[in-house]
Amino acid sequence: DKTEKSDTAVVSVNGKDCTEKENPGFTINKMVQLKGGNTWAENVTAKAGDTIRYRIQFKSTGDGVLKNVVIRDVLPAGISYVKGSTVLYNAANQTGKKLDDGIVTEAGVNIGDYEKNAEATIYFFATVNTPADECQTSVIRNIAKGKYNNDDKTEKSDEADVTIDAVSCGDTPVIPKTGATTVISGVFGAASIATAAGYYIISRKKLN
């Protein structure tokens, strides 16, 4: 056995080295805030017509290079994307790069290749629509998804919620009218009282 020697051979499938010992991976984090806010959360409370801002953070955590990273966002009913609002920040675009509106499509947006510990952040705006039932508090969940190497098996996701508070839909209280009708009714009421008093005085004089 002391004379034993060895050598290796590499088998590539679709350009991937099947003998590699790398363990590629990533994290994805989704947060939301009201437009103009300065804190991020997994859930915000909003009302119909409000504009909200979403943030998707991506970080490569494995030992290898992640090729063709694709990020997409699944917008639920009740949330409308603001066109032209997607911006990407990463090492190559530290001041931000405007992206097309593919973030909310099935194909998503390709944000390039990422080595270990490399990061990217995507921002975009959306508006809150009027819920189907305004009398019920509703929670709208938004999901961000990421994958690499054109492989759906690598896909990971994270979500953020928007809570829309219900409006008061009980019986509407009757509010007393204070307009012209009330004034006129008061005038006629006073006149009736005065007339009755006059008749009473006249009748008393006749009796005396």
Describe the protein.
The protein is mainly beta and 208 residues long. Helix content is 13%, strand content 39%. The strands form three sheets. Strands 3, 5, 7, 8, 9 and 11 form a six-stranded antiparallel beta sheet that branches. Strand 8 and strand 9 (93-98) form a beta hairpin.
Task: Please provide a brief summary of the model.
With 208 residues, the chain is mainly beta.
Strand and helix map with partners:
Layout: E1 12-13, E2 16-17, E3 26-34, E4 43-46, E5 51-60, E6 70-74, E7 79-81, E8 87-90, E9 93-98, E10 109-110, E11 119-128, E12 138-148, E13 151-164, H1 180-207
Parallel strand pairs: 4-13
Antiparallel strand pairs: 1-2, 3-5, 5-11, 6-10, 6-12, 7-11, 8-9, 8-11, 12-13
Order of helices and strands: EEEEEEEEEEEEEH
The helix-and-strand class reads mainly beta
- Mean pLDDT across residues: 81
Instruction: Name the beta content range.
Output: 35-45%
Query: What is the number of E strands?
Result: 13
Shape: elongated
Radius of gyration: 35 Å
Q: Count of DSSP helices?
A: 1
- How helix-rich are the residues, as a percent range? 10-25%
Biggest beta sheet attributes = 6 strands, antiparallel
Kindly report how far apart the N and C termini lie: 149 Å
Low-confidence stretches: 176-188, 204-208
